[in-house]
Amino acid sequence: MSKHIAIVACSAEGAALCYRTICAEAPELMGRHMHPEISMHTHPLGGYMEHIVAGNWEAVAGLMLSSVSKLARAGAELAVCPDNTIHQAFEHVVEKSPIPWLHIAEAVARKAKKAGFGKLGITGTKYLMTGPVYPEVLESFGLQWAIPGQDDRARIDSIIFDELVKGVFTEKSRLYFNEVIRKLRQAGCDAVILGCTEIPLLVDPEDCPLPVLDSTRLLARAALKQALA
After folding, report:
1. Which residues contact 1 (CB under 8 A, 6 or more apart)?
2. Range of the domain at 78
3. Same domain, 16 and 117
4. How far apart are CA 47 and CA 210, in angstroms?
5. What are 138-174's pLDDT values in tens digits?
């Protein structure tokens, strides 16, 4: 028996990658063609962005709670959100959620600690790179962190919202991410967090200047492990 996983989605590409990862990796643990029950719900990204831009994280939490409540009524027993930025509302969500959650940054931090990394570069939306989601978790794990400079943060944010969330992945943007990650390596980072759930669809780990911590797939694997615990 396995727990029914709820995916509280925000943007389509990252949520789809999380779903595909669970389904693709589960058979090795559960048997041919097998995976846990999975249900997904999402409000429009535009609804989330209205509240994110306004800094209204309680309203963001309200959307997340709306989704998880519907999924719990469908039988889900464990929730994940494959979107790093809206984890800034996580504390407002877990205290009212009908089912338990896994935190995406904790899945990343555990992997980093196990791999022996000490200082992590953070990439993602401008709200994530300058926000508390990763710094708070990484510090609790004894890990250091760094973020790109202001101009790089602005361009990364533009690539995410103008390209990646729309399923557009260009070689120009991939090479730009590699250049930013090279700067993070020069700043002393020994790994980089792909902290927007679409970035793993752009950055190639084989070509990246630093080892990558793929937040989307790490969350999916954590959910699968918890579902089978």
Report:
1. none
2. 5-103+217-228
3. no
4. 34
5. 999 999 999 999 999 999 999 999 999 999 999 999 9
